[in-house]
Amino acid sequence: MTSSGTPVVPGIGTGPVVVTSERVEAPADEVHVDHDTTVAAVAAASEVVADRLTARAAHASGAAAEVLQATAAMARDRGLATFVAKHADASGPATAMTAAVAELATMFEAAGGLMAERVTDLLDVRDRVVAEVLGLPEPGVPSPDVPSVLFADDLAPADTAGLDAERITAIAIRLGGATSHTAIIARQLGIPCVVGVRDLPLDGSAGTALVDGTTGEVLIDPDAADAERRAAEDAERRAASAAWTGPGATRDGHAVQVLANVQDAAGAVRAAAEPVEGFGLYRTELSFLDRSSEPTVDEQAEIYRAVLDAAGPHKVVVRTLDAGSDKPLAFADMGSEPNPALGVRGLRIAIERPELLDHQLDAIAAAAAQSSADVWVMAPMVAVVSEAVDVAARIRQRGLTAGVMIETPSAALHADRLLQHVDFVSIGTNDLSQYTFAADRMASSLSHLTDPWQPALLTLVASVAAAGERAGKPVGVCGEAAADPLLACVLVGLGVTSLSCAASAVRSVGAMLATVTLEQCRAAASAALDADDPADGRARVRAILT
Ligand code: PEP
Ligand code: MG
């Protein structure tokens, strides 16, 4: 039997199937002693859960360690304890915890954006605490003795972060989207991963499986010899990725800058250790998610300078604050909006608060003056030409190279006009697909629409790349699309001049590009544009490039 989903981390994993354990429910007849006993039991269990997560964080690194620490902090959260206390008058500990989390989850969901995303962590904390108060083993991922494939309905980020890539060869999950935390962490751990596999058998009926994180296929009980052959070919590809040293180019020497996406100095230092020619997207807003007031220009300059320094003499594309929607910044809050993703976010904040943009540009210019990096600056969420004209003037006044992101269909349609006013453009495929398909990028149930292989999305990319060629100006891609080695070749065939992706994906993208010619990339691009849907596109392109 073959199932399929959205591939998010390339590579092949095979082995016996393990399924995440069922969640434990609070028993209907749970004993209630009194308020204080319930509160104390939940507090003690929460502490044990938090300690375990913190211990695991100590053995993890990067995004995985951050997720484990954040989940531990949620288990210790005072606010959560207050909600438990509200339910402790009449309920035992497991029931009070369940009721408290249900109430909080509803509030988080109503808040939307990043808060809504944290619901998965909240439910994960609930399940761990409930198991602990009932004296049952911690729920979640089993630790198999032999390398195995993990099947799950959904996977809490903390579970994904704790995975051992030696034991879990691949992940297939029924829910989840390409931009979910699970996908991001699986990518960091280098574990092949497919999400949104609707008919994934979770009842223990699957004996062995092969998960192909490049095609999205999940083969249940595959032919053993065939699985072995595919796994061996994949191992060869991985070895080639590990050996890739850059710079980015096709086999016949067509240069394509391969760059990393970064968000802070520590990540920038890690990314600079990869064979990259710089950073194609520095998401500045992520440094300020917990700030209640605007950081001073000096403070900002120091933060930016640390990232620029990590790049050495290379290019760094600094993105101005992309606040709002799923990344709210308290100091750039424009009040509640019925549709935050369609509201005042990104560059639009400068309409009412131009000083925020000016201060940030002053800080970037100050950092650039003290660094040897080649600093480019771009604005997110540009929709019309006048916005590009305005922001380009402000950037150039400070002696910096000016660009805009192409994240809205209107910007893609008018790329020719935008390019008359800026030095470069960079396509943010995550948002461009969200706005092209009217499909929330956070909604796992819509991940088939926000799949970057959608031919309509690629048609927009093609038209922007063609505009770049006409203007003789660079066109980059810095969304998740650039992290997929096969799709990266398609983007190059469409005329894209640089690819910026997670540092962990850089080598597989660079190594794949080095095996194909520009002509093959162009053939792959036209096949992907002609495809009926993402699966058809992947199959056609694989046939041309591999
Ligand atoms: C994008 O939208 O593709 C992008 C790169 O920006 P972000 O993911 O930060 O919105
Ligand atoms: Mg974006």
From TrEMBL:
Please name the top-level EC class of this enzyme: transferase
Where does the PEP-utilising enzyme C-terminal domain start and stop, copy by copy?
Answer: 247-515
Protein name listed in UniProt? Phosphoenolpyruvate-protein phosphotransferase
Residues binding Mg(2+), per UniProt: E407, D431
Q: Which residues form the PEP-utilising enzyme mobile domain?
A: 147-216
Localisation per UniProt entry: Cytoplasm
Which UniProt keywords are present, listed alphabetically? Cytoplasm, Kinase, Magnesium, Metal-binding, Phosphotransferase system, Pyruvate, Sugar transport, Transferase, Transport
Q: What does this protein do?
A: General (non sugar-specific) component of the phosphoenolpyruvate-dependent sugar phosphotransferase system (sugar PTS). This major carbohydrate active-transport system catalyzes the phosphorylation of incoming sugar substrates concomitantly with their translocation across the cell membrane. Enzyme I transfers the phosphoryl group from phosphoenolpyruvate (PEP) to the phosphoryl carrier protein (HPr).
> Known SUPFAM superfamilies for this protein?
Enzyme I of the PEP:sugar phosphotransferase system HPr-binding (sub)domain, Phosphoenolpyruvate/pyruvate domain, Phosphohistidine domain
Pfam families documented for this protein: PEP-utilisers_N, PEP-utilizers, PEP-utilizers_C
This protein's GO CC annotations:
cytoplasm
Q: Which family does it belong to?
A: Belongs to the PEP-utilizing enzyme family.
